[in-house]
Design brief:
Chain A: Keywords: ATP-binding, Nucleotide-binding, Transport. Chain A: This is ABC transporter domain-containing protein. Chain A: It comes from marine sediment metagenome. Chain A: InterPro entries: AAA+_ATPase (IPR003593), ABC_transporter-like_ATP-bd (IPR003439), ABC_transporter-like_CS (IPR017871), P-loop_NTPase (IPR027417). Chain A: One of its GO terms (molecular function) is ATP hydrolysis activity. The complex is a heterotrimer of chains A (about 270), B (about 270) and C (about 150). With about 270 residues, chain A is α/β, with parallel strands linked by helices. Chain A has helices at about 45-50, 75-80, 100-110, 115-130, 145-155, 175-190, 205-210, 225-230, 235-240, 260-265, 265-270; strands at about 5-15, 20-30, 35-40, 60-65, 70, 85-90, 165, 195-200, 210-215, 220-225. A 6-stranded mixed sheet of chain A has the order 6-7-8-3-9-10, sandwiched between helices. In chain A, strands 2-1-4-5 form a 4-stranded antiparallel sheet, with no helix packed on it. With about 270 residues, chain B is an all-alpha fold. Chain B has one domain (about 55-265). In chain B, helix 2 (about 45-85) packs antiparallel against helix 3, helix 3 (about 90-130) crosses helix 6 (about 185-195) and helix 5 (about 145-180) packs across helix 7 (about 200-230). The longest helix of chain B has about 40 residues, at about 45-85. Chain B is globular and about 65 Å long. With about 150 residues, chain C is an alpha/beta fold. Chain C has 2 domains: about 1-35; about 40-145, no CATH class. Chain C contains 2 helices and 8 strands. Chain C has an 8-stranded mixed sheet with strand order 7-1-4-3-2-6-5-8, with no helix packed on it. The longest helix of chain C is centred in the N-terminal third of the chain and has 28 residues, at about 1-30. The chains are: A alpha/beta (about 270), B mainly alpha (about 270), C alpha/beta (about 150). At the B-C interface, helix 2, helix 5, helix 6 and helix 7 of B face helix 1 of C.
Chain lengths: ~270, ~270, ~150
């Protein structure tokens, strides 16, 4: 059974207002591997994670997680399914009224009837894994961004999920904590046989941990493959992104009218005429 | 001519769109209330409710009691100067008690509650939304409506009527201080006139019903504004203002309707 | 843990204060009495005109409150008002048969209440009996009319 994909995304359409975000995305996420979804800013990578988590509903198409159509589940079944997923938010999203220990204990307390001593052991185990066992009594306000994200990772792992979704785990991290996070994600995935989905635009780090990559641009998957095959991909859009070239088919400018008309004042021309 | 016509239709279209938006928001708010307020609380739910009772109830007590004291004192002072012209200063107790129980305590306590607890509820839930705490709770498989919203709603429903009782009691005592201790109204007539004219069911009871209605409306508006806001710092500040404005208007408007039904012989 | 205990204690106090407040509003402000119904008895009295008398008005004897008006209804046999009084049980069997009940007004514009005064009959009123000797309320308009007509006849 390990060969069947854990997540299947079929012909996904999603729009926000007038703005189309996805136009027919197809994707499969294999079980027990790290799959990275990459793309320039503003291509809706975070939106894709929210669609997978069932927080947004697509206009068309469907998402299967372990064979279940996420958007056809009842509210209760969806919440049950979510117990098998963990999600790491960009900001960490720790509960500000609880300390570090209680944040990690939160999923255990609400979903299990474990005795307090066992909860304590499990929480310390998870905190040890992210190297923050000593920080258990701090409040989220006292943590640095990197520490908050590691606590959030410990919380996401608290229920030993089968799937972890990482939303931009490397953004705004100093090189050291970035390295720590990369190691953590890699190690956890190997040790716990997790399926991971990493959404990011940090190429180097993502390439180093991903088993498989999807590249999204203009609401579609423009390329996919292992890091090695993408590195030598000839598609100009792919090579521009992978190699970080400023000029190429992916425009640097937000769509606008012709530059000289904007500068010369179209309005003045029309009023005088 | 053409442009005038089209701007006219555009205006009507805009009005229509506003109407649709308003109806949609009301519908969302209704579903929101039903989803979060109805349900059996768990053991954990009780603990969370208690915590919120502390925030919206106990911490609002001081401001409500102080305001009640002053309003009772002012009522007695104003009432005395009017009643003494008719030689009816014995009726002071009656006047103070009836105005407090029927009108001032439910309304003023609700307005203070909206400013003190309502705006704080909106800001708190809004901040939880802006920092993705609500989303992450959902992803952990916990319904934020039950975990975050429901305890706050129920705490508001219970706390405001208690605060209103406190307001009345302190206000009547404040009236006693000014009327009897200072202005020299006979103590016996202050209390006996009050007792003869105040009916427990009609006056105290109706005042409590008013206060319960205000509690539901104010807490509902506050919590919904927090939950439904645009998750930016500007969105939070706007939603906090909206909470105070909407709930004050709702309290005053509903007060007229309730008074007309309860005491207006409708 | 300790902080949550003090918090729980605070909320508990808050709710007790609320209950005490309602009790205060009931007893002190609206004048409800805690006495059980077994400690009282009923008498009836018919009045030709009750003026502004209302249920729950005081019943006094020599100025001391001894009971309350329970109900007021129209007696369709005599077309007068039948008033049911609920009195303290210590007066049961102590009021003579020719006691009078009159409707009085506190001050010129105050509320109306019933004043009882005992007579000299050796027989006593039992629970449920009717007070025969009653005095109706003074209606201000009638009083003025009388006064004016007296002036005119003089």
């Amino acid at each position: 059974m390990t060969d069947t994909p854990f997540i299947e995304i079929e012909d996904l359409y999603f729009s926000r207002g007038e703005h189309d975000i996805f136009r027919g995305v197809n994707m499969t996420v294999p079980r027990g591997k790290v799959t990275a979804i990459m793309g320039p800013s503003g291509t809706g990578k975070t939106t894709l994670l929210k669609l997978i988590g069932g927080q947004l509903v697509p206009d068309r198409g469907r998402i299967l997680i372990d064979g279940q159509d996420v958007h056809r589940l009842s509210r209760k079944a969806l919440f049950t399914l979510r117990k098998r997923m963990g999600m790491l938010f960009q900001s960490g999203a720790l509960f500000s009224d609880l300390d570090v220990f209680e944040n990690v204990a939160f999923p255990l307390r609400v979903h299990t009837d474990l005795p307090d001593t066992m909860v304590r052991d499990l929480v310390l185990l998870k905190l040890q894994a992210v190297g923050l066992r000593g920080a258990r009594e701090l409040t989220p306000a006292e943590l640095s961004g990197g520490m908050a994200r590691r606590v959030a990772l410990a919380r996401a792992m608290a229920l030993d999920p089968e799937l972890i979704l990482y939303d931009e785990p490397f953004v705004g991290q100093d090189p050291i904590s970035m390295g720590v996070l990369v190691q953590l994600i890699k190690r956890l995935n190997q040790a716990l046989q997790l399926t991971s989905v990493v959404v990011s635009h940090d190429i180097k780090e993502t390439l180093s941990i991903a088993d498989y990559l999807y590249l999204i641009a203009d609401g579609q998957v423009v390329a996919h493959g292992t890091p090695q095959t993408l590195d030598i991909n000839q598609d100009p859009r792919v090579s521009q992104f992978i190699h970080g070239e400023p000029d190429g088919p992916v425009p640097f400018h937000y769509p606008a009218e012709a530059f000289y008309r904007d500068i010369l004042g179209d309005a003045r021309v029309s009023t005088s005429g | 001519m053409q442009s005038k016509f089209s701007s006219g239709t555009a205006r009507i279209t805009r009005l229509g769109r506003r109407g649709c938006d308003l109806m949609e928001a009301l519908g969302r708010a209704g579903v929101f209330l039903a989803q979060s307020a109805i349900g059996i609380p768990s053991r954990e739910g009780w603990r969370l409710w208690l915590q919120q009772m502390h925030f919206v109830g106990v911490l609002s007590l001081a401001i409500v009691l102080v305001s009640g004291l002053f309003i009772g004192m002012v009522l007695a002072l104003q009432g005395y100067t009017i009643l003494v012209d008719f030689g009816a200063e014995q009726a002071l107790g009656q006047m103070v008690a009836l105005s407090l129980l029927r009108e001032l305590a439910p309304v003023v306590a609700a307005l203070l509650f909206a400013g003190r607890a309502g705006s704080a509820l909106t800001a708190e839930i809004g901040l939880m939304k802006a920092t993705e705490q609500l989303t992450s709770m959902e992803m952990i498989g916990v319904d934020p409506l039950r975990r975050v919203v429901a305890p706050r709603l129920w705490a508001g429903f219970v706390a405001l009527p208690i605060l209103t009782v406190g307001f009345s009691v302190v206000g009547i005592w404040g009236g006693y201080l000014v009327g009897v201790e200072w202005l020299g109204v006979f103590e016996g007539s202050y209390w006996s006139n009050m007792q003869a004219s105040v009916d427990f069911i009609n006056d105290v009871g109706n005042g409590m019903i008013k206060s319960l209605v205000f509690a539901v409306v104010v807490t509902w508006i506050a919590v919904f504004q927090g939950y439904d806001l645009v998750p930016t710092s500007e969105g939070i500040s706007r939603a906090t203002t909206r909470t105070v404005v909407y709930s004050s208007l709702a309290v005053l408007g509903l007060d007229f309707v309730l008074t007309a039904v309860m005491f207006g012989g409708l | 843990m300790r902080r949550s205990k003090t918090m729980e204690f605070g909320v508990g106090l808050f709710m007790i204060a609320g209950i005490l407040g309602v009790v205060f509003l009931g007893l002190r402000v609206s004048g409800l009495t805690l006495s059980a119904p077994s400690q009282s008895f009923q008498l009836e009295a018919n009045f030709a005109n009750i003026g502004g008398l209302k249920p729950r008005a005081r019943v006094t004897m020599a100025g001391v409150t001894v009971g309350r008006v329970e109900t007021i209804e129209l007696d369709t046999e005599w077309y007068d008002a039948r008033v049911v009084l609920r009195l303290n049980s210590e007066l049961e069997g102590q009021l003579s048969r020719d006691s009078t009940a009159s409707i009085l007004t506190a001050g010129l514009l105050g509320e109306q209440y019933i004043g009882l005064s005992v007579g000299g009959d050796p027989e006593m009123l039992a629970a449920g009996d009717t007070i025969r000797d009653t005095q109706s309320a003074l209606v201000l308009e009638e009083l003025i009319q009388q006064f004016v007509s007296n002036m005119a006849s003089n």
